[in-house]
Design a protein that fits this description.
The complex is a heterodimer of chains A (about 475) and B (about 350). Chain A has about 475 residues and is an alpha/beta fold. Chain A has 10 helices and 21 strands. In chain A, helix 1 packs parallel to helix 4. The longest helix of chain A is centred in the last third of the chain and has 21 residues. With about 350 residues, chain B is mostly helical. Chain B has a two-stranded antiparallel sheet. The two termini of chain B are about 25 Å apart. Classes of the chains: A alpha/beta (about 475), B mainly alpha (about 350). The interface between A and B is large, with 37 and 36 residues. The complex binds flavin-adenine dinucleotide and iron/sulfur cluster (2 copies). The site of one iron/sulfur cluster has 15 residues of chain B, from helix 4 and helix 5.
Chain lengths: ~475, ~350
Amino acid sequence: MTKLNALWDLVVVGGGNAALCAAIEAAELGASVVILEGAPRDYRGGNSRHTRNFRCMHQGPLSVLTDIYEEEEYFDDLLRVTKGETDEHLARLAIRTSESCLPWMEKQGVRFQPSLSGTLSLSRTNAFFLGGGKALVNAYYNRAADLGVTVIYEAQVTHVDIQDSVFSGVTCDIAGVTQLIEGKSVVLASGGFQADLEWLARAWGPAAKNFLIRGTPYNRGVVLKDMIDQGAETVGDPTQCHAVAIDGRAPKYDGGIVTRLDCVPFSIVVNRDGQRFYDEGEDVWPKRYAIWGRLVAAQPDQVAYSIIDTKSIDAFMPSVFPPIQADTIEGLGQKLGISGTVLKSTVEAFNAACQEGMFHGNELDGLTTKGLTPSKTNWARPITQAPFYGYELRPGVTFTYLGLKVDETARVTGAGGRMKNVWAAGEIMAGSILGQGYLAGFGMTIGTVFGRIAGKEAAAHVL
Amino acid sequence: MSYEIPILPKSNTLAEARRQVEICNACRYCEGYCAVFPAITRQRAFADGDLTQLANLCHNCQGCYHACQYTAPHEFALNLPGILADVRQESWDEYAWPQAFAGRFQRRGTPIALALVVGLALLFALVTALPATDGLGFYAFVSHSLMIAIFAPAFLAPMVAIGVGLRRYWCAVGGQPIRFAHLRHAVSAVATMRNLGGGQGQGCNFEDGDRFSNKRRIAHQLVMYGFLLCFAATSSATLMHYLLDIQAPYEIFSLPKLLGLTGGLMMSVGALWLVMLKRRADRKLGSVRAWGGEMAFVLLLGLTGFTGLWLYAATGTPLVAPLLALHLGAVLTFFLITPYSKMVHGFYRLAALVRDAQSIT
Ligand SMILES: Cc1cc2nc3c(=O)[nH]c(=O)nc-3n(C[C@H](O)[C@H](O)[C@H](O)COP(=O)(O)OP(=O)(O)OC[C@H]3O[C@@H](n4cnc5c(N)ncnc54)[C@H](O)[C@@H]3O)c2cc1C
Ligand code: SF4
Ligand code: SF4
């Protein structure tokens, strides 16, 4: 503990991907670095430990990535999902730098694997981590240890000490004891605020209390709020979060990837009152899963139910919990806790509106309903074959958009202009680039690119 | 297809394994580590036999434990290497023949030690009680025909027992007629211990937390190849004895000696290394119940190799008689407990790899 009293070259707040990239870069340049991770060791790595891939530009085949994925296409993809809510300069910087990140990551001990079964559509654009994000986080922690970086777990930063744009230290609760940790520079990489349900409720309304949080309970935005209170400039819509529809039985926090449900396009989705409310077959699931969080959040009690029959049970990735199963639609409704009679009439109305045609699970098959509102425009097959299955859906929050404004050196801006020795990386500044929507794998790209930049800049400033 | 699993779980172990495997099937992050995950993703529901197959296919590289975002204290409490090790142990018990011996030498070290004492005592009694024969070398102590009379059945009986067990396994996992391609696939996986390679040759997690190394893989192969060399030494000696009528003791530059010495050395070093690694490993990532039995078994293997070497080094000294008893006693014990000890893992794992090859091709 005596070492803590040192004056560190770099204090890194957070222990996820962005924090680790910053710490490694700075330590490689010879800086003394301390990582303050708010979570205990078992839960280290924030949301990064739930990830599976990162999106990477490449001008030719690169490691596990096939074909090419160039800057323009990547940027177009980003524009499409953000509807223009992006800082083009920073976005292109992230995109261009991603290509050199992959070999850098491999050098630090991160390993890649070909895209997972069921995710072939991403094999060109996204490099998957062997073993997933936790394996990546482990590799980085090992690398950091080899470089002499000090890691303190259960170290929750409550305040960042900044006077006249100059950082001098952080106040930190370490296993219940308040300590001041001094440093010559700081990288803030403590993620978003999605685990703070009160904050979400202030931004979104009381319904947010019913949301599930897909990732770590430790990202409560304490540091973000502290910085905002001190006049740091922000970007991103403070009232928005990225939410998808997940299995309603998922844990309140940290359910991660397995709680996703891919059954929606092959089902009809009804609300608590047994009524349909949106076209389940609008587009292929990877392009639509992100809107369903919002759709379900807008329903009474923030809950919905996806109903399929035996024909469709094998059409999607297996779910983590087995579906609720019944031999009749009424019975299924009762088991799900909604009116069986209403569900039956909804299903009957849907079945009557289905048309003849060929079903193709993997593409838009144009199998649409006729005379039904809302209509289902693809994969509309009558729900007739017992046993019937149902899944409860709830909104699961992935991340929040509000963040700190940074420049191309990842430096934070305050009321008095660019701060002297304060950098930010990862989700805490991602709103600069990802103001809206989501592009699969871009969160880790932003964290890696800006984490590395922040680490190098901080070290250069100090040394 | 219905989600109801047709066969009721035989034990809590299987039910728990099913729960964990279903979580993995919804996740699949570990797909690149080993053969187990691709096998999982080929299915949606898992009957008992499927889980038994997955368990025997798992090489306990522990990669999927350290990479898992759902390990305890997370409420999903994933520990796939641990639960598959338990399923594996139980399956060997279930298929053991005769059932009376099932699991006798698998879990704890004491029965192995006891068996060893009995084996040794027997051999000591033989060596000392019998009058010196007119044979040369070891045969001066125990005649060749007596050796055959003891060791042929001691080797063949366990083989029959294992054969019965494997047959039961094969039925349980729905095995099909075996083709050469299946064998080639399985043998090549064993030859390199591919499934301890972490998918990319970085090795496994064992002695140093979440850091990868090939130490356990190399140590295992030293023991495995050492054992095979010793086995080849004995076989070549038998052939020389019966076919060429060349009798032991053999020259140092003879096939049996060269094979035996190299094999003995590899086995001793490998076993010792495995013991050291295993002491540093996390017990809960294997079958906690079987730790003692496994450790004792590795020690027995090491002892077998080491006494063989020592015996050779002691040639011409008064130590030969006691060492011979020691060595042959260890060998005898080893053979006799093979179907009911950790040693049986080799047979089941080979079977699992063959079965796996059948579902890929
Ligand atoms: C289920 C799920 C799957 C995802 N999959 C992908 C994917 O495949 N690809 C992708 O690119 N993105 C994915 N994302 C998004 C991705 O997780 C984030 O973009 C990325 O992890 C952000 O990295 P970070 O380092 O900024 O934050 P995090 O990894 O969340 O790290 C924040 C760290 O700060 C710590 N912390 C928080 N507050 C404090 C405090 N006050 N004091 C000290 N420490 C603190 C936390 O404990 C944590 O260690 C996924 C998100 C979720 C929830
Ligand atoms: S062990 Fe954990 S990370 Fe690996 S596939 Fe299973 S659930 Fe996913
Ligand atoms: S322990 Fe290793 S071999 Fe066994 S399932 Fe996990 S990754 Fe595969």
